[in-house]
Specification:
- Helix content is 47%, strand content 9%.
- The protein has helices at 2-19, 22-28, 32-40, 45-51, 57-62, 85-94, 105-117, 119-142, 152-157, 177-182, 197-215, 218-227, 229-238, 245-248, 254-271, 301-308, 312-318, 343-368, 394-401, 405-411, 460-473, 500-506, 512-519; strands at 290-295, 299-300, 326-327, 334-339, 379-387, 424-432, 488-493, 531-536.
- Helix 12 packs across helix 13 and helix 16 packs across helix 17.
- The strands form 4 sheets. A two-stranded antiparallel sheet has the order 1-4. A two-stranded antiparallel sheet has the order 2-3. A two-stranded antiparallel ribbon has the order 5-6.
- The protein is mainly alpha-helical.
- The termini are far apart.
- The chain is built from 23 helices and 8 strands.
């Protein structure tokens, strides 16, 4: 008994989280037409969801044409069949599902809506099912759920992954923000996993299982999905302890009283579409014509679309979770769904996409004035792509390229210090120019993972070898100091504990004042990671 009470309490909390706030939103709505519909009871959110497809231009453009489809029935194109109640009832009884389906006047009303009044929109939804239903079936089968739950998404969102209800429920499965977070769906400025077809369907499946463990009745699970388990519990109590949907229906919110009949109507029509002369309008792309790749850094959908020569709307259509058309970077790789025939093109274009974005980032850095040393007339700023190897971490990579961990994180938009083997990191390095304007390295074709900026560590032996090589290769003069016009120079990266006096002692012929003069320093204070120009030789 104690366990059951805890389950009911948990269900009540979920119910309050999902929809109790909706009444407040309804009360604040300023749409007079909607207010009148709500007041006289004529507003039907299920019909409104279907109607929302009319305003989605990208869905219309990415669907095929109804005129280009062939009917598989014996009806004339404009013919709208109807049947006697007994025929509807017998057909529904033949649908093999563990969900107890029934036929009544409420179900008939929604059959008329989908098959008659809004049949054009229904045909478009049937086409979208080619994109989402195979995914749903795979997940529900793995979770041991009735496959007919896939039809619930039509009632919820009309298979529009960017659908947003009046109360803020979002995505194919219409999760409220708080409920989505309970089921580990991330939402931020760039990402909304309530719009992610895979993750939102997994969350919905888990919700169905949680509710079934409480009610042991699939129709009550569907009702709870709509109005929240708290409302279902109250309806059970007000009905005197009844345990079926039809028995507690009079005590449920009005919307939920129509929600389950709408689900039954959709389930019926998706099984008997040809009998109602309904022909699906195929989408531009189906589930089996798209596949997923992993992305481990921030990317623009527009850049990807340009690189693989597809409309950016198609990528947005396949990846609706990216709210601003940007794949954000995170602690784990992000998914990118692409047309299957473009996967190889994308793989071949990755480096070009990265290079384009690096150029934009480099221009931004130069514009911000944060890289004064690299933009010096005596040095060229170039980018390198570092591929992370097993055992490497940000500090070791920062040491290798003579930069700071914070710079690496900024350049690669990293939020943590966790790295994966094979991950690519952008590194900005400065290569001194020779007097003829060319790069100062003997071999300007620098191999990946090869540091080219002067790195000065606390290891004196390493300092000596690095400085000697760079002194031999760097032919540019330190023009900032006329007295050292014939001197070669390198960059010294300020390390923890460094002072001007220590740095001056490390390089023959340098003094504190000469370092300050060359680098135009106004004080002796140094910041770790700062690049200092140091003249060597004469």
């Amino acid at each position: 008994m104690g366990k059951n009470m805890k389950q009911l309490l948990a269900a009540s909390l979920l119910g309050s989280v999902m929809l109790c706030c909706s009444l407040q939103v309804v009360a604040q709505d300023e749409n007079p037409v909607l207010e009148q519909a709500l007041a006289n009871g004529s507003y039907d959110p299920i019909a409104a969801t279907l109607d929302s497809l009319v305003n989605l231009n990208y869905i219309a453009r990415l669907n095929g044409s109804a005129s280009g489809t062939e009917s598989v029935s014996n009806f004339q194109p404009s013919e709208i069949p109807s049947y006697a109640d007994d025929i509807y009832r017998k057909r529904i009884e033949k649908i093999q599902t563990p969900i107890p389906l029934a036929y009544n006047s409420q179900v008939q009303e929604y059959i008329n809506m989908y098959a008659m009044r809004k049949r054009g929109l229904t045909e478009r939804v049937m086409g979208l099912a080619n994109l989402y239903f195979p995914l749903y079936e795979q997940i529900f089968d793995q979770q041991g759920l009735p496959l007919e739950f896939k039809y619930l998404s039509i009632v919820e969102s009309a298979l529009n992954p960017t659908a947003v209800s009046r109360v803020g429920a979002t995505g194919l499965w219409q999760f409220m923000l708080s409920t989505g977070k309970l089921y580990k769906l991330k939402v931020n400025s760039y990402l909304d996993e309530r719009r992610d077809p895979v993750k939102s369907t997994m969350a919905a499946a888990q919700y169905f299982k949680d509710m079934y463990s409480i009610y042991n009745d699939w129709l009550l699970v569907i009702a709870a999905y709509n109005c929240g388990a708290g409302n279902v519990n109250r309806a059970i109590a007000r009905s005197g302890g009844k345990k079926t949907f039809w028995e507690i229906s009079p005590y449920l919110p009005r919307e939920t009283r129509g929600y389950v009949p709408a689900f039954i109507a959709v389930t019926y029509l998706m099984n008997y579409s040809s009998e109602h002369n309904l022909t699906s309008v195929p989408p531009m792309i189906s589930y089996f014509e798209a596949d997923t790749v992993m992305v481990d850094r921030k990317m623009q959908l527009k850049d990807i679309a340009d690189a693989i020569n597809v409309p950016v709307e198609l990528l947005s259509y396949l990846n609706p979770m990216y709210k601003k058309g940007v794949i954000p970077d995170g602690d784990e790789p992000m998914t990118l769904r692409l047309p299957t025939n473009k996967i190889n093109t994308y793989i071949a274009s990755i480096d070009n996409i990265y290079q384009q974005q690096e150029s934009m980032t480099m221009a931004s850095i130069a514009a911000s004035g944060n890289q004064e040393d690299e933009s010096d007339e005596n040095a060229s700023l170039i980018t390198r792509m570092h591929k992370v190897k097993n055992g490497e971490h940000l500090q070791s990579i920062a040491n290798r390229y003579s930069c700071s961990v914070q710079e690496l994180k900024k350049w690669n938009h990293l939020r943590s210090t966790k790295l994966r083997a094979g991950q690519r990191l952008t590194v900005y390095v400065a290569v001194p120019k020779r007097s003829d304007g060319k790069l100062g390295m003997k071999n300007s074709s620098v191999k990946e993972n090869t540091p080219v900026t002067a790195a000065v560590s606390n290891d004196a032996t390493r300092d000596s070898s690095v400085n000697q090589n760079l002194t031999e290769n760097n032919q540019t003069t330190a023009s900032a100091n006329p007295k050292q016009a014939d001197s070669k120079f390198i960059y010294h990266i300020v390390q923890p504990g460094d002072t001007l006096w220590k740095i001056a002692r490390r390089y023959e012929g340098m003094t504190v004042e000469s370092i300050k003069e060359i680098n135009q320093l106004q004080s002796n204070e140094l910041k770790v990671g700062t690049r200092l120009k140091v003249a060597v030789g004469g």
